[in-house]
Amino acid sequence: MDERRERIGFAGLGTMGQAMAANLARGGFPLTVWNRSPGRSRRILELGAAEVPSPARLAAASDVVVICVRDTPDVEEILFGPEGVAAGARKELLVIDCSTISPAASRAFGQRLSERGVRFVDAPVSGGSEGAQQGTLSIMVGGDAGDVARARPILAAIGSTITHMGPVGAGQATKAVNQVILAGTYLGVAEGIVLAMKSGLDPATVVRALSGGAAQSWVLANRSERMIRNEYPIGFKLALHRKDLGIALDLAAQVGAALPIAGLAAQIENGLIAAGHGDDDNSALARAIRAWSGLEG
Amino acid sequence: MDERRERIGFAGLGTMGQAMAANLARGGFPLTVWNRSPGRSRRILELGAAEVPSPARLAAASDVVVICVRDTPDVEEILFGPEGVAAGARKELLVIDCSTISPAASRAFGQRLSERGVRFVDAPVSGGSEGAQQGTLSIMVGGDAGDVARARPILAAIGSTITHMGPVGAGQATKAVNQVILAGTYLGVAEGIVLAMKSGLDPATVVRALSGGAAQSWVLANRSERMIRNEYPIGFKLALHRKDLGIALDLAAQVGAALPIAGLAAQIENGLIAAGHGDDDNSALARAIRAWSGLEG
C-alpha cells in the first residue's frame, strides 16, 4: 500500500489541530475528523473530510489516528475512554499524539496500546499557530524506528523539521526542554527591555543594536516589540506555556534536575493567569517585570 | 583635515585592546599606544605604532584617544590620574571609551572633560575576542551627534555594527541591557541542556531539533556544546560578565528596574568565581545548574 494512502483520523480541532488537519487534507490524505465540542469541523469538511461522533469510530475508519488536544487527561480520555480509540482500533493502527503532555504518561499510554497491538508515537510540535497554518512546525518524535518511519510522511505534511529523539516519551521530553529554554529567554529579554525603557533608551533601537550579537534570539527578534508596546496578541498562549512548564518541572523532579529559572517563570505565570492574562501570548511574561518596575504591566 | 588622518592614541592593550589597536594600525591610522603594565606592545609596534610612558603623553601625541580597559576606576585613573589624559590634552581632543563601565560614571567623566574643552563618547563593544580580532564588533555609542560622527570612521575600523544610542552614557546603558539579556538566555539554555541530559536525551540532537524554532538563540547555537561537554574555553570571561552585571544592577537600582534573573545570575556567578571558574567562558553559568542536578559542575 502506498504510504500516502494511509487513511488518517484526526482528533482535536482547536486552533493548532484545525490548521494541521487542513494541511493533511490538502496533502491528499483521506481524512476523518472528530472533535469533543461540535461546530469546529466546517472548514475541514469543505476540504473533503468526513466527521464521526466518537474516537472509537475515528479509529475504526482509519489506519493512523493523529491527536492534538490540550493536556494529558484529554489524551487519556480519547485513547481509553468508553468510546475511545482503543475500543475501535484494529491491530497495527498507529496513533500519533501531537499534543504536549507528560513524557511518563506517554510511555504508559504507549505500553497500554501495545498490549492491544496498537502502535504509538509521541510527536509534540512547536512553531505556534503560524507554523501550524504554514505547515512549518518543528516536530519532536519519540517511538520505535519503524513506527516513526511510518509516521514521517504524515508529519511531513504538517511540519518542516521532523527529528526522531528516541523511544516513546523522548519527543515530549524534548518539547519540555524547549519550554524551559523559552522561560529563560523570555525573562532575559523582558528584563533587558524594561531596563532599556527605564534608562531612557529607545528600546527598538536597543533591539536593533543588539540583534547581531550574543544576545540575539528568536524571542528578541520576534517578541520584544510586544513587550515594548505591552500588547501580546497570540502567538502561543501563556496559560499553555504554564501547563507545559508543569510537565517540565514534573519531569525535572523525576529525573533529578534543578531548574530555578523555569520554576520562577511558572510562579510568575501563575500570577499573570490569576490577573487575567492567561490568553495573552507567552511574551506577556514581560508584564511582571514591567509592573515590578513601575511601568504599566 | 582628512578624517582618516586623525592621530590615534590607544590606552589598554589587553586581549580586546590589542586586537582593536592592531585593526586601527592596519586601517591606516597613525597610532601611539600606552599600557599600564609593560610588555604588551610588541605586536602593535611591529605594525608601525609608537609607544609612550603615560596617558598624558598619549593625549599630547594624539587627536583622538581610544580607551579599552577593565572597569570604571581604571578609566578614571587614565583620564584624571596624575599623568592622565586630561593633563596632556589639547582642546578638541576626542576621547572614545570602549571599556564597559558605569553609565553614570561615563556622564560624570564626559562632564569633567568638557570643562577642559575635551570631547567624550562612550562606545562599549560586544562580540568577544573573536569579534575584536576580525573587526566585527558591535559598538553601542553614546555622545553628541558631532562627536559620534567624528568617532565613526575610527570605530568602523574595529567594528561592523555601530549604533548611536543617545547622549553620553547611553552606549553603556545599552551594553548593560545586552548583559542582562545574556544572563537569562544563558540560564535558560543551561537548564534546558541539563534537563535533556538528565532525561536521557542526546543533548546535541535536542539542540539540532530546537534550533529552527522559538528557542533559537546565539547562545543555543554557539555555547550549548560547551555546556554539554562541561568545558568553557574563552569566549568572554565569566568574571567580566559578573562585573558587567554589577554595572547593570547598579543602573537598575538608579532607574528603578526590577531584574530578578540578572540578580540571581550575579549571585550564581559569585559562587562560580569563588570556586575558581572566573576565567571560564560566561557559558560556565551552566556549571551551577549541572552541579545542582548531580552532574559534574
Helix-strand blueprint:
2 copies of one chain form a homodimer.
Chain A (H helix, E strand, L loop, with lengths): L7 E4 L3 H12 L4 E4 L7 H5 L3 E2 L3 H6 L3 E4 L4 H9 L4 H4 L5 E4 L5 H12 L4 E4 L2 E2 L1 H7 L2 E6 L2 H11 L3 E8 L3 H29 L4 H8 L7 H12 L8 H18 L4 H15 L11 H7 L5
Parallel strand pairs in A: 1-2, 1-4, 2-3, 4-5, 5-6, 8-9
Antiparallel strand pairs in A: 7-8
Beta fraction of chain A: 5-15%
Instruction: Kindly state the number of beta strands of chain A.
Output: 9
Q: State the CATH topology of the largest domain in chain A.
A: Rossmann fold
CATH homologous superfamily name of the largest domain in chain A?
NAD(P)-binding Rossmann-like Domain
Strand order of the largest sheet of chain A: 3-2-1-4-5-6
CATH architecture of the largest domain in chain A: 3-Layer(aba) Sandwich
Give the oligomeric state of the chains in this entry, treating copies of one chain as homo and distinct chains as hetero: homodimer
Total helical segments of chain A? 14
Portion in helices of chain A: 40-55%
Overall pLDDT score of chain A: 96
Number of domains of chain A: 2
Name of the top-level CATH class of the largest domain in chain A:
Alpha Beta
Structural class estimated from helices and strands of chain A: alpha/beta
Largest sheet of chain A: 6 strands, parallel
Along the chain, the helix and strand elements of chain A come as: EHEHEHEHHEHEEHEHEHHHHHH
Rg measurement of chain A, Å: 20 Å
List the chains of the largest interface with their residue counts. A-B, 72 and 71 residues
Low-confidence segments of chain A: none
Q: First CA to last CA of chain A: what distance?
A: 57 Å
